[in-house]
Structure formats: structure tokens, C-alpha cells
Design a protein that fits this description.
With 168 residues, the chain is of the alpha+beta class. The chain is built from six helices and ten strands; from the N terminus they run H-H-E-E-E-E-H-E-E-E-E-H-E-H-E-H. Strands 1, 4, 5, 6, 7, 8, 9 and 10 form an eight-stranded mixed β-sheet that branches. Strands 2-3 form a two-stranded antiparallel sheet. Strand 7 and strand 8 form a beta hairpin. The relative contact order is 0.22. The mean pLDDT is 89.
């Protein structure tokens, strides 16, 4: 067990979940199929206690609670853990009754049609103000350095289903 692993909480705390940055978008594969990624990141450090190791441990706990694996491994199926309800996207994290939420907008309509979301969890902080090229660079550098975790999540037809899911 590394020092970072010892810092990781058993499950993400409500405060951590509330602080996470969520960047959803719609993209297309080379053959024109639509897919819906969602990048989840930690904001930059705001307190002395927010060291790089602490932030990494928090994000590893988020990745673990989502069933995500490093980019170089086989993409895990995280099961039904996303729902859209009253214009809000809800994402279930294992081990906690709290959900990650964000306004769904048009993305919510798209993910209910597609039925799946590609979850991407970054281990390093990213400013909530980051857009376009900065986010693209974050994705590329994080994937190359093994600091991006992925999982495929199914979109449930009801918020009730993500709370009663059989996924551990």
C-alpha cells in the first residue's frame, strides 16, 4: 500500500462529491456513431491540506466508487448508474447514498437516447474555468501518463433504478 492509497477515503465524502467538476459533451466516433463522455475532475487546491497526494487519493476514491479503471486497461462496465430526472443528471457512486448531480440540458436528452455514458475521472485538478484546448490537453496528457480512469455507464430509465442497482 502506497502513501497515496492510505490517504484514500473508503468512499467519496459529500463535500468531495459536491466540489467535483463535471464536463459532459457529445462526440462522434470515426464511423459517425455518437457517444457521450463526461469528465470528472477535482478543482485546484483551495487549502493547505489540498496537496497533490491528497487530491489524487480523493480522485482515486471517486474512480473506485464508479468502477473505473486506468486508460490502458479494458473498459469496465459500471452498470446502471446514471439517470436524468427533471433536467438534472444524477450519477450514483458506490458506497455512498449521495449522488453527483449536474444540470442535464440537451446532453441529458442525448444520453437518454444513446443509453450509455463514457465516464472519465482525472486524478489531477483542473480549473472549473478550463475550456476547449486546455481540457483537450488535460485529457491527452492525463491519458498518456496513466492519470485518467474510464468506465462505461448505462443510463437508467428512472432515478429509482440507480439507487437500487445491484452493482456493489
Amino acid at each position: 500500500m502506497t502513501a497515496v492509497d492510505r490517504l484514500a477515503p473508503a468512499v467519496p465524502t459529500p463535500g468531495l462529491i459536491a466540489s467535483l467538476g463535471v464536463r459532459p459533451w457529445v462526440d462522434r466516433t470515426n464511423d459517425g456513431e455518437g457517444f457521450a463522455p463526461m469528465l470528472i475532475t477535482h478543482p485546484p487546491a483551495r487549502r493547505d491540506a489540498d496537496t497533490a497526494a491528497t487530491i489524487e487519493a480523493r480522485m482515486r476514491s471517486v474512480a473506485h466508487a464508479l468502477g473505473a479503471a486506468p486508460a490502458h486497461e479494458t473498459l469496465p462496465d459500471a452498470g446502471e448508474r446514471i439517470a436524468v430526472h427533471n433536467g438534472v443528471m444524477l450519477l450514483r457512486l458506490d458506497g455512498t447514498p449521495h449522488t453527483l448531480t449536474t444540470r442535464a440540458g440537451n446532453w441529458g436528452r442525448v444520453i437518454t437516447e444513446i443509453g450509455h455514458v463514457l465516464l472519465a475521472v482525472g486524478l489531477d485538478p483542473l480549473s472549473p474555468a478550463a475550456v476547449g484546448p486546455e481540457v483537450d490537453e488535460y485529457l491527452v496528457s492525463s491519458a498518456k501518463s496513466g492519470r485518467l480512469y474510464f468506465a462505461a455507464a448505462t443510463v437508467a430509465d428512472s432515478a429509482r433504478r440507480i439507487h437500487t442497482g445491484s452493482h456493489p
